[in-house]
Amino acid sequence: MFWRRRYDISGKWYGVIVYGKRYGSNAGKELLFEADLTMDGHLVKGTATDISGCGVNPTPATISGGIIGRELTFLKQYAVLGYNESGNSKIDETREGHYISYAGLYNPKTESFSGIWRFKYAGAVVGNHMITRAGGSGTWGMSRILQTIVPPGL
After folding, report:
1. What counts of helices (H) and strands (E) characterise the chain?
2. Residue pLDDT tens, the chain, 154 long
3. Is 46 within 8 Å of 36 (Cβ atoms)?
4. Residue 3 domain-assigned?
5. Strand 88-92 and strand 71-78: pairing?
6. What's 86's DSSP letter?
7. Rounded-to-integer distance, Cα 71 and Cα 53, Å
8. DSSP string of 7-45?
9. How far apart are CA 122 and CA 149, in angstroms?
10. For residue 126, what is the domain's CATH number?
């Protein structure tokens, strides 16, 4: 019988996403985020908050997924829709954000993940234009935030 090692990834993480080629002038730009994850068996839940960089969404995102062995997959969804219009970041508070899928591998030696992210949607109105079958992708990574414990009196 084949057994997979179970990793506990509960805790705080610091990460980055990098925009892929489809983002034109924003390709290669980064968005920094923090995530707070909890586990129940192999299921992973949590929240992510954008810190800085290209395309910051001011609302937290929910995370829901799972980890089997070293492979983490999850969906992330912001409370409000964020998008880019003519090079400017915009927020539509009347709509929820799209689901963004993440897949990555855990490196237990460095306590970090790396992988790819992507999203697709069938249609959306941006400004006065209808965009269909749009989406995007890129790479991502995150590392555990290690807490330093300082003894009392120091």
Report:
1. 0, 10
2. 445 667 899 999 999 999 999 888 889 999 999 999 999 999 999 999 999 999 888 899 999 999 999 999 999 999 887 766 666 677 778 888 889 999 999 999 999 999 999 987 655 555 555 454 567 899 999 999 976 656 666 5
3. yes
4. no
5. unpaired
6. T
7. 27
8. ----EEEEEEEEE-GGGGGGTT-EEEEEEEEEEETTEEE
9. 49
10. 2.40.128.120
For residue 30, give Cα distances in angstroms to 16, 20, 138, 153: 6, 10, 10, 40
pTM: 0.81
Full residue range of the structural domain in which residue 78 is found: 11-144
103 in a domain, yes or no? yes
Residue 4, in any domain of the structure: no
Q: How many domains does the chain have?
A: 1
Residue type, 130: M
CA distance 6 to 39: 11
